[in-house]
Design brief:
- The structure is a single chain.
- This protein is an alpha+beta fold.
- The protein is about 45% helix and about 15% strand.
- The protein contains 6 helices and 6 strands.
- The strands form 2 sheets. It has a 4-stranded antiparallel β-sheet, with helices on one face.
- α2 runs parallel beside α6.
- The N and C termini lie far apart (about 70 Å).
- The mean pLDDT is about 90.
């Protein structure tokens, strides 16, 4: 029994090609068609050098300080609901997940991007069981969504917005996000009142 046909075909995945036949390389090369991600390798090496130069203790302290500012800022926005597995934990990774009353996650992410040039992620972040729990989605609703998706449907899925912090994130970046959320929340309040 031979190895499976490669999903992608191209340079690096072959031993020999004729006009009528291909002799595929052995694994793992057989499944790695195309050119290696040289730019990605160079970027990863540069990132590792930068982290080493700054020092991981300094990176961790920066992340803690900026993250604390972000979480505190989010709590000042009317209608923001933060989602956390361990609320109040002091030593968390530099991400904050939240929703804003009156906005679906996809809508809020698009608004932040289009109107404020803020890049966030939205959805369930490849963690659907955890996110449905954090969002308080009842099992019956989750089962219905699952069945509808399995049947080829396209239901509106629950989700949240996630802001991530990195070495280049500044206090001003956090203040910009929190300010944008205040503006969006106020706009929603005015629209509801009208």
């Amino acid at each position: 029994m031979g190895a499976a046909e490669p999903l992608l075909q191209g340079g690096g995945a072959i031993k020999f090609v004729t006009e009528d036949d291909v002799v595929w390389a052995d694994a793992p090369e057989r499944y790695e068609a195309g050119s290696p991600n040289v730019i990605g390798i160079v970027a990863l090496a540069a990132a590792c050098r930068r982290l080493r130069a700054v020092g991981m203790d300094a990176v961790a302290e920066h992340e803690r300080r900026i993250a604390a500012r972000l979480w505190a800022g989010l709590l000042t926005v009317p209608g923001v609901r933060t989602l956390s597995l361990w609320p109040g934990a002091a030593d968390r990774v530099g991400v904050a997940t939240f929703n804003l009353d009156g906005y679906r996650d996809i809508e809020l992410a698009a608004l932040l991007s289009a109107e404020h040039a803020i890049g966030v992620r939205h959805g369930c972040f490849c963690a659907h069981p955890l996110m449905t729990r954090l969002l308080g989605i009842p099992d019956a609703q989750s089962d219905r969504l699952h069945a509808e998706l399995r049947a080829g449907g396209d239901p509106e899925l629950p989700g949240a917005v996630r802001a991530s912090i990195g070495l280049g994130t500044t206090e001003a970046d956090v203040d910009t996000l929190v300010g944008a959320l205040h503006e969006v929340a106020q706009r929603r309040s005015l629209a509801v009142a009208a």
